[in-house]
């Protein structure tokens, strides 16, 4: 515990120092004192104008990322969750409102600090720049110089947002778990930063259009590609691309036209290219850590996705949902509520979709299952294929991704509230609790599962609470109560009782492999090796190129094209990431291939459950003992909705974890109840996978 606390204090000190640098960046002290002294040592020969910013802005975050991998590896080995409990009160919802959604006290505090940083930076940038207006050209009026300075500095502030934009979408990040986040839970930060930065860049661009067109009559400067300074036309191209991505990223467009959003958002590759050409090498170093780590993660995901995954079986439910079960390397472990990205080339060669993992890596050591609800064009095509007579389906997977810990399992009681397919993350939690209840002296929380379904066919989702396995389970110690509400039916239709769950088994293919860690058993350590080696390689190669190629030309008085310097940075970053990641991945791939050949075929029994089993006791003699126990602890309510306020306030335990997954209105209602302060024993945690 002391060792872990020392690591946390170290990371906190480095981060505080890093943010202090951002606070000092727009001040005179940084410009007139720090920069000249550092430039004297760093910029003269090897790194030139990049040296100071590489040291101050790139190195600290890369250090945190590399050492964070070591910390997460040690935390995984210790398998302790107690360190998470001391700040759980800070996770209480502090604000529930559109469009921000549910915001807890920690998020609200950091958002306020970040906004304060932006305002502080803009104020100081303007203070410093206005103090140098005497240096403006004779044909430029003072008010015109001030106008240009304001909109130039708005671009600087947008660059501050960009420095943090890519961390939330780096799925295998070693930085997010350090603060208890996952890519899924922090995607909203990417959305917030994206909106703020685009607004700032739009103001920056429009301001300069007005300045060049209406004030100075220099519109030709928009198309200028200077050899000695920044490229204006690259900024114009980046701005046009950003407008296309921004217009299709709004919630309504993203939900109704997901494919338009999906393909348009991949313009980010071109956007980053032209954006870097516009901001220059000095400001490139400020956003470099986020892009560097994102490239490592993206390339690792690409390498992992090249494998074909063995699909063992599929369960087709009467309500159109599907459970896909894959073979898994027994050494692969993940926590409940994790997600897996699935790609099926026969449906679409480009799309990947995230789905909730319902299996427990500890209970089902050689299998991994996800649940998919048929509600869009992609999922409907998948359901149709699975309903046909095919005996093999080509599938690729990426992940799993999830929380670094399952701290909520240490609470005295859990109240899990779901709507429709929102029950899927709770299936993995219940399976994990089932395993804990079977262990000697296993202490598990009491569980109350509140589910709301539209019709009786949806109740078959409860059949997935138990794994499709021949291993006998003892759930006699499990304290579970299920309250199922069927909102749009007042009684059970007889035709639903005749519908059965269909189970399909697939033939193995020699080219398919079980799901495993992309970098093997010690994945965090290997990721740390990739981060550190690729960044050190980048610094060495950049220093050599600068010292022996760029510097000699400039010393002779020749002009080295400014954009070529940026292109060198881009090339070296990509090359170093490619080399370091490929070497370590291929080294680990040999070991994983040998282990995959040793994994035997997974045999699964065919269940005999029917939807009516949850509604009456007529078929219980056909069921296994665990299933009988689950049916007996289930109450089904027709034509009713759960009274969530009464249910939550009736909990008398001192430590009640409240998890909710479902429609936005349900999540917000539960969050408001927990945020009201009327029940001090409720600790809220929203689970949402809306991308």
TrEMBL record:
Task: Quote the subcellular location field of this record.
Answer: Membrane
Q: Which reaction does it catalyse?
A: 2 a Fe(II)-siderophore + NAD(+) + H(+) = 2 a Fe(III)-siderophore + NADH
Obligatory cofactor(s): FAD
EC no. given is: 1.16.1.7
Name one cellular component (GO) term. plasma membrane
| TM region(s), chain numbering | 7-25, 54-74, 95-123, 150-170, 191-214, 229-250, 281-300, 524-546, 566-587
CDD domains in the record: NOX_Duox_like_FAD_NADP
Q: Which Gene Ontology terms cover its molecular function? A: ferric-chelate reductase (NADH) activity; metal ion binding
The EC category is oxidoreductase
Domain of life where this protein originates: Eukaryota
FAD-binding FR-type domain segment(s): 304-407
User: How is this protein situated with respect to the membrane?
Assistant: Multi-pass membrane protein
Signal sequence coordinates: none
A GO BP entry is: monoatomic ion transport
Task: Name the InterPro entries on file.
Answer: FAD-bd_8, FAD-bd_FR_type, Fe3_Rdtase_TM_dom, Fe_red_NAD-bd_6, FNR_nucleotide-bd, RBOH/FRE, Riboflavin_synthase-like_b-brl
Q: Where is it predominantly found?
A: membrane
- Keywords, comma-separated and alphabetical: Ion transport, Iron, Membrane, Metal-binding, Oxidoreductase, Transmembrane, Transmembrane helix, Transport
Does the keyword section mention Oxidoreductase? yes
Query: Which family does the record claim for this protein?
Result: Belongs to the ferric reductase (FRE) family.
- Protein name, as recorded: ferric-chelate reductase (NADH)
Protein's organism? Sesamum alatum
